[in-house]
Please model this.
Amino acid sequence: MKTYPRGFMPLLHGTLLTLLGSGLLLAPGALQMRLEWDMPWVLSSGLRVWVAALHALSFLLMFALVGALWTVHIRTGWVRRENLTSGALLLLAFALLGLSGLALYYAGGERLPVWSAVLHLLAGGALPALYVVHRLGARAAAARAWPLRCRVQATACASTARTAPSASQTVSTRP
Model:
């Protein structure tokens, strides 16, 4: 991800950790409210509002970051056919989290809020594992891209380093 500004990856990781941390804090309350489970610990109602606001705000930032990833990283990976399965699963998890999160707030009836809470918790729990698998696949793809001699003498083979595809190899957004 060399085409992004220097602070992009720390912002992405910080946002993911904020989403995960706030989601873990909100999970016992969601299980208690939606599934009517007796939980040994839940956030107080005043603190729950602030943590939910932080969770929603970090989701909005994550949504913008996924949009930034779409412009270069996702399209390039699609053209190169690298990490397609793990990348598609990550995008699916983010889509499910976004839709189920909206359903948590706005869904009516008796069954839909319960199913959206279960789906949201499952997708949120799977997201860290999906991200790790995606990163490990990226490392494996990078290792395959470099010949063995370049791993030994990285400075001598700097000119053979893999770069972003040329404009003719990328997906066009023009009609």
Q: What stands out?
A: Residues 21 and 55 are 9 Å apart (CA to CA).
